[in-house]
């Protein structure tokens, strides 16, 4: 039977001798950074201690951040992915700087209205290196994923979504997607998918090693016509942060055209702290190029 | 008649989706003479309004309780005022209480609806007691739901479970044998004020609705208010926080009502708290990363329960102690239960894993309740076979 906690590791490659400064870090530091199967997710493996290897929570955190970033960069509202399962990972912690996580995970297609269909999800695989900086947002992410949807199909679906959006009457008087009972009208799905895409950017930026976000609800929508053909989309979402359980309203403005990088501007209300988080980004093949928009 | 036309004009389109629990109100109407009884009868018998009499017309000077669907509220209020009928809104919004009453009425030998206290805004706290035996203080199981009001799948699963227990008793050997040995207490709405608030004002409200002196922020997190490392890590002392622990342990009357009841009973062996979302099945502790003395057994039971749950639709749950599985949380219900001698203490975080989160669609209620039932039964069977 494997001991629940492993003895402190010998000097290892990576950042110098870390000293625990917070309860979470203290727990992590007692575990050697090994490539380990991230604790069995199902209930069928009694031989495996629940928390062998790297804490599953940190790996999931990293996987989610990587996926938000991936979705944003892919810029495709009809090809959004969600986390299926963390498969393996390792982490290095430096209390002064933050932590670096390598993680491998599977994903499935994001399709809210057809959760119960088997095989529709189709698992893709991603591997990512995520670096969380202490107390700072915007984890640095390097992520690659196997292709889940054929490129041509994805382009077709994006273009279909684009056309659906363009056909919607302006101004849109939408209140709440999903409604309070979790229902999304089929003709409003394109709005939801595009909102999710823009929110991915926001959620990537805001994710830290302890905070992670879900998109709870879209509470107001306005679509403005632009002179060019782009979708100019202004909306408010409620994000749910899990560790504090806070609901955070964010105002997001995005500009999208199928196949082009997504442009996002946002402003979130931080209810607890006096600072408010806001940011601007234009997605491009060149990483971390901030641009005015 | 003038009033029929008047009301008819206000009603508009037909009432749909009577499955909803929300927006309805119970009017307690005073009738003082035959004339008023006759007016009220006409109102009640009117098909348009779909009124439902809870406590019926019998004599004068006895109030009549009528359940008014939300679509008819305006019309009924106008009518009552125009006819000079005195009324008060007796209970806001609790068709779920009506349903509990129905269950108890349908199976009087098995179920009783018991009032264990009241909320901050003076709503009753009702549990359903399922018992087959006489004798004081049989070993008992506590099923807690709806402590966080926005987690609607929790209250919904609880009420479905109540119906399931009564319909399966004496048909399903498992629940029958559980009830032969033990009582089950089910609290479907542990936070009634919050629940009403999510229906009327803010769908994502989590806490109670108690007032915080000196702060404009309302409510405390009822699952940080229990006396188990109260005000420790994983809770906040800021009244504006979603995890505000409250001024002191059991400050929230909703929590105190449960604590007092359980302590007075003195023979609870199992405490299960239903929440959403994340698909997790957890056991103590939340307030510390220390291992609970019974962690090994609790982990085994939880894994078996998660496996049984998954056997229905393939829904996967992660299993583990609260602190490391989700996050540190002090003052939680199951930690209190465990540290007070209730060994089999578990938290379910029901569907889903974030796609809909709190806004789980109605078509997932029954699948969720059905799979959760298998998980609950697994735990209750283990309790039955391992009474201490």
From TrEMBL, chain A:
Residue span of region Disordered: 1-22, 274-293
Gene behind the chain: RARRES1
Annotated family: Belongs to the protease inhibitor I47 (latexin) family.
The keyword Repeat belongs to this UniProt entry's keyword annotation: yes
SUPFAM superfamilies named in the record: Cystatin/monellin
GO MF annotation: an example: metalloendopeptidase inhibitor activity
Biological process, per Gene Ontology: negative regulation of cell population proliferation
Keyword Signal set for record: yes
InterPro entries: CYSTATIN_LXN, Cystatin_sf, Latexin, TIG1
Pfam families, A to Z: LXN (PF06907)
Record's GO cellular component terms: extracellular space
Domain Cystatin LXN-type, first and last residues per copy: 43-153, 173-276
Ranges of biased composition (kind: Pro residues): 1-21
Protein's name in the database: Retinoic acid receptor responder 1
Keywords: Protease inhibitor, Repeat, Signal
Signal peptide positions on this chain: 1-37
Automatic annotation (TrEMBL), chain B:
Subcellular location: Secreted
GO MF annotation list: metallocarboxypeptidase activity; zinc ion binding
Annotated Pfam families: Peptidase_M14, Propep_M14
Single GO BP term: proteolysis
Cofactor dependency: Zn(2+)
Active site, per annotation: 349 (proton donor/acceptor)
GO CC, one annotated term: extracellular space
Keywords: Carboxypeptidase, Disulfide bond, Hydrolase, Metal-binding, Metalloprotease, Protease, Secreted, Signal, Zinc
Any coiled-coil regions, as ranges: none
Top-level taxon: Eukaryota
Residue ranges occupied by any Peptidase M14 domain in the UniProt entry: 87-383
Predominant cellular place of this UniProt entry's protein: secreted
Keyword Disulfide bond listed: yes
Family: Belongs to the peptidase M14 family.
PANTHER family in the cross-refs: CARBOXYPEPTIDASE A4, PROTEASE FAMILY M14 CARBOXYPEPTIDASE A,B
Name of the protein in question: Carboxypeptidase A4
Organism, as annotated: Papio anubis
Lineage of source species: Eukaryota, Metazoa, Chordata, Craniata, Vertebrata
